[in-house]
Amino acid sequence: MDLSISTYYLVEGFKGLEEEYIDPYGNITTHLIGQYVYDKITSLPKLERPQQMPIIKTEISGDIILANYQIANVTYPATYKGHAIHPLMGKSLVPLIEGKVDYVYAPNEPLGAEL
């Protein structure tokens, strides 16, 4: 599978190769993965950089967690400040990132989020 340079670094970032791009709770957020892709592309030699440079632009309150403890190889916490943490819902991206599957959700499987 041929990937664009941005997608290549996005996938590498999800693999959690560099701990500085994973927060203290083992999460990969929109900001951290965006910063990783930007840093990697802008650090390439000038002749290897794409003409279109990546930007980080999100319009949210807080941050969105894209990946978490599974990639960071940490145990999901049961409580936080004395309050129970509900198990995560949805499907893991790990099999896709590891190349074990071609997609997370089937084409006919509904996918949605309420934010």
Explain what this protein looks like in three dimensions.
The protein has 115 residues and is of the alpha+beta class. It has a domain at 5-74. Helices cover 27% and strands 8% of the residues. The protein has helices at 5-14, 30-42, 69-72, 94-97; strands at 28-29, 65-67, 79-80, 83-84. It has a two-stranded antiparallel ribbon with strand order 1-2. A two-stranded antiparallel sheet has the order 3-4. The N and C termini lie far apart (33 Å). The mean pLDDT is 75.
Low-confidence stretches: none
Instruction: Work out the helicity level.
Output: 25-40%
Task: Calculate the terminal CA-CA distance, rounded to whole Å.
Answer: 33 Å
Q: How much strand content do the residues show?
A: 5-15%
Strand line-up in the sheet with most strands: 1-2
* Computed Rg: 16 Å
Main beta sheet, described? 2 strands, antiparallel
Structural class of the helices, strands and pairings?
Answer: alpha+beta
Count of β-strands: 4
What is the typical, i.e. mean, pLDDT? 75
Order of helices and strands: HEHEHEEH
Give the overall form: globular
Count of alpha and pi helical runs: 4
